[in-house]
UniProtKB/TrEMBL annotation:
Coiled coil: none annotated. GO terms for molecular function: peptidase activity. Residues 79-156 form the D-alanyl-D-alanine carboxypeptidase-like core domain. This is D-alanyl-D-alanine carboxypeptidase-like core domain-containing protein. GO terms for biological process: proteolysis. It comes from the Bacteria.
Length: 209
């Protein structure tokens, strides 16, 4: 089960233990590099980074991302670690339709409105997590690094209200939106959805087993 976007903070305050974790992970990657060179000649830094980050973020799961998205993310985090000493972890990548539906319906229940829910989660047919081209990253420092350096890997922050959410966009930098629902809202920011539609979704929620 993947975690999902539960953190509403505009930016997490830096935690005192993060620099310690970063230093320990850097040291581990450095120590593993000779073995990584034997295991994967020419890819020592990449492999050592992968091993060290797996130790730091044991719960993360890169499965289900498209091969290009996964390769871009792994290249970015290798560069972040070796060039800048910054850790980049994955909170949530690919989600199946059922998981995304549950996340979306939870937001509809939470806000009592489809328009408001869409500021935080999209239904599965629109979600790039379901398409395997979106990643939620951590910690805040890693997300900041990716915002600054991600373009080289076609990874871009897309939403003002989600500092953790990045998308693989090989076509170039997408327009930055206030939130996930912004693309489908009316010109003056009014929701395109009617109350009846909200109630239909809530009915669906109530009838779910
Ligand atoms: Zn996301």
């Amino acid at each position: 089960m993947h975690e999902h976007d539960t953190d509403r903070a505009a930016a997490e305050p830096p935690r005192r233990r993060d620099p310690v974790y970063a230093a320990a992970t850097r040291m581990l990657a450095f120590a593993l590099a000779p073995v990584a060179a034997l295991a994967t000649p020419g890819r020592a830094r990449h492999t050592a980074c992968r091993w060290a980050l797996a130790a730091r973020f044991p719960a993360e799961c890169l499965d289900g991302l498209t091969p290009d998205t996964r390769a871009a993310f792994e290249a970015a985090r290798t560069r972040a670690l070796w060039e800048h000493g910054v850790l980049l972890g994955l909170t949530s990548g690919y989600r199946d339709r059922a998981t995304q539906t549950a996340i979306y319906l939870a937001e509809v229940r939470r806000w009592g409105s489809v328009a408001e829910a869409r500021r935080w989660a999209l239904p599965p047919e629109e979600s790039r997590h379901v398409a395997g081209t979106a990643i939620d990253v951590r910690p805040t420092e890693g997300a900041r690094w990716l915002e600054r350096h991600g373009a080289l890997h076609s990874l871009y922050r897309v939403y003002d209200n989600e500092w953790w959410h990045f998308e693989y966009r090989p076509g170039g930098r997408p327009p930055r939106l206030p939130d996930p629902g912004a693309a489908t809202r009316g010109a003056r920011g009014r929701p395109l959805f009617r109350r009846a539609e909200t109630m239909a979704v809530l009915d669906l929620t109530c009838s779910a087993p």
